[in-house]
Write a structure and sequence with these properties.
This protein has 137 residues and is of the alpha+beta class. Helices cover 23% and strands 34% of the residues. It has three helices and nine strands, in the order H-E-H-E-E-E-E-E-E-E-H-E. It has helices at residues 3-22, 40-46, 121-124, and strands spanning 31-36, 51-57, 62-66, 81-82, 86-90, 95-99, 103-104, 111-117, 129-136. Strands 1-8-5-6-3-2-9 form a seven-stranded mixed beta barrel. A two-stranded antiparallel ribbon has the order 4-7.
Length: 137
């Protein structure tokens, strides 16, 4: 029995499994333009772009990424309803949400609309955690 070939095959299998489980396949991060609203919070967010964020899936309803900074969000700017493609910020967890379906946001969630994306494919293509570069559109 050739243990060297067996070890090489096992290493290749482990690497392939790791790539498959990462959900991103090792490809470069897709770039998605965000068409930002004309609001103070969106202007603050624009200063962070372009940047690559690690988005995670929230049960198919949203892709969420921590932005690691706090943005000023006037309470009156929170949204009650959203549509697929809306990009929002939530101050409670300093996260950006790319909303993947239409819905209603409970008033205590505190989503502030930042803008919209036209291309949801990179977010749908990755059911776990994926890196997506957001740019100003």
């Amino acid at each position: 029995m050739n243990f060297s070939r067996l070890a090489t095959a096992a290493s290749a299998a482990v690497l392939a499994l790791a790539i498959a489980l990462s959900g991103c396949g090792g490809a470069s991060s897709p770039s998605v333009p965000v068409h930002l609203d004309d609001s103070p919070t969106a202007t603050q967010f624009a200063q962070l772009l372009p940047q690559t964020f690690a988005f995670s899936d929230r049960l198919g309803g949203a892709a969420v990424a921590s932005i690691r900074v706090s943005l000023d969000t006037p309470v009156l700017d929170t949204i009650a309803e959203y549509t697929a493609g809306d990009v929002a910020y939530r101050a409670d967890d300093s996260s950006v949400y790319v909303l993947l379906s239409d819905g209603v946001a409970p008033s205590d969630v505190g989503l502030v609309l930042l803008g919209r994306v036209d291309d949801l494919a990179p977010f749908w293509a990755c059911p776990r955690t994926c890196e997506v570069a957001l740019t100003v559109g």
